[in-house]
Amino acid sequence: MRVAIAGAGAVGRSIAGELLENGHEILLIDKAPTAISVERVPMAEWLLADACEITSLDEAALQRCNVVIAATGDDKVNLVVALLAKTEYGVPRVVARVNNPKNEWLFNESWGVDVAVSTPRLMSALVEEAVSVGDLVRLLRFSHGDANLVELTLPEESALAGTRVGDVQWPEDTSLVTIIRGNRVLTPSHEDSLEAGDELLFVAAQAREEQLEDLLSARRTLR
């Protein structure tokens, strides 16, 4: 997979290094000569250019990229890169970094963003996820379809503990994608039973989040 990363600072280089380890083809783009540190990520391609300029993106052959990541420290730049990548080059997947949480509302499909990553929001979500049982935690927002990646740890008293996945009447526009049980990561099947303490990851429409939380947190009826 070919991935172009706009912004060769610490964040961009870190992403590039990890993707290279996973066998992907990486192009790092930055307009600051001081950011061009080939020795730090020697396996990547490097381009000294302004990622907000069409001529630069032509040189980068952005139309050949499967993914573009706008990872600069400037939200305005990231939005412009995302919009150009999607509208001018038809890049299938555009991921954008949100530096200021106040700007998060702009990072949507209107600006060509498929996935917006806000570090402050993600950090707070991970703190919540670590201490919350029975509460829905939003981990990541997907622009298309107004969907989010959400997590809930199934409480001991949940009415769904011991229930098979296939027997649960899940809300519309929700999909259980992963069960984390101890050290195991499970791809859920209809025959798998839910257990108290399971960390459940869903892709869910925002409008369904409250309904999903109510379903998972509902207490057993005492007899």
Structure write-up:
This protein is of the alpha/beta class. It has five helices and eleven strands. An eleven-stranded mixed sheet has the order 3-2-1-4-5-6-7-8-11-9-10, sandwiched between helices. The mean pLDDT is 88.
Gist?
The chain is an alpha/beta fold and 223 residues long.
Largest sheet: 11 strands, mixed
Helix content percent band: 10-25%
Q: Output the number of helix runs.
A: 5
Strand content: 25-35%
Helix/strand order, N-terminal first: EHEEHEHEEHEEEEEH
Radius of gyration: 20 Å
Low-confidence stretches: none
Structural class: alpha/beta
Keywords: Ion transport, NAD, Potassium, Potassium transport, Transport
InterPro entries: K_uptake_TrkA (IPR006036), NAD(P)-bd_dom_sf (IPR036291), RCK_C (IPR006037), RCK_C_sf (IPR036721), RCK_N (IPR003148), Trk_Ktr_HKT_K-transport (IPR050721)
GO cellular component, one term: plasma membrane
Protein name: Trk system potassium uptake protein TrkA
